[in-house]
Amino acid sequence: MGTKPHVLVLILPVQGHINPLLQFSKIIASRGIKVTVVFESSIETTFQADNQSELIKFECMTEIIDQENVPENSAPDAWIEIAKVKVLEQLPLILENKASSGEPVNVLVYDSLPHYACDIAKQFGIQAAAFFTHSATVSAIYHHLHEGTLKFPSKEEPITISLPSLPYVFKPKDLPSYVYDS
């Protein structure tokens, strides 16, 4: 029998993203798969106490978002760009260290926000999978906006929104904040 598969799970410190990825990590570890959870140092205490296991190891990146580098009241795009620089610096080093220590990663599971993590996985010749922490309804809204079949709501022209196959009619305040910020 060969070595156990090794999955590296990249978690960003964003509300609503940490616990789903952590629960996913626990589920796959319970199946005998080795898991390394990579997270930012600012949330280290959240992980270390309650989540120790033989199959789940935790790896801490330096703080991705230094609050001094993000202007007050800045748009989410500013935060995402700063996080991108840090992840692009640190994730390859973590993957290299795992490989050189005899624990090569087979699969990278990453929060859907840092989509560029997939490119890093490709550089290392490993499989990658985005983990969407939001609902299928939110994915459908993003898809229809991207395809142009749903128009962006504006505060001047409030509209109601309905999507194919969904019985619910949305108001702008029901939409994700990336789409409509009330």
Descriptive overview:
The chain is elongated, with a radius of gyration of 19 Å. It is of the alpha/beta class and 182 residues long. It contains five helices and seven strands. The chain has helices spanning 18-29, 44-48, 76-100, 117-123, 136-147, and strands at 6-10, 34-40, 56-61, 107-111, 127-131, 161-162, 169-170. 20% of the residues are buried. The protein starts with 5 loop residues before the first strand and ends in a 12-residue tail after the last strand. It folds into two domains: 6-131, Glycogen Phosphorylase B (Rossmann fold), CATH 3.40.50; 136-174, no CATH class. Belongs to the UDP-glycosyltransferase family.
Element layout with pairings:
Blueprint: E1 6-10, H1 18-29, E2 34-40, H2 44-48, E3 56-61, H3 76-100, E4 107-111, H4 117-123, E5 127-131, H5 136-147, E6 161-162, E7 169-170
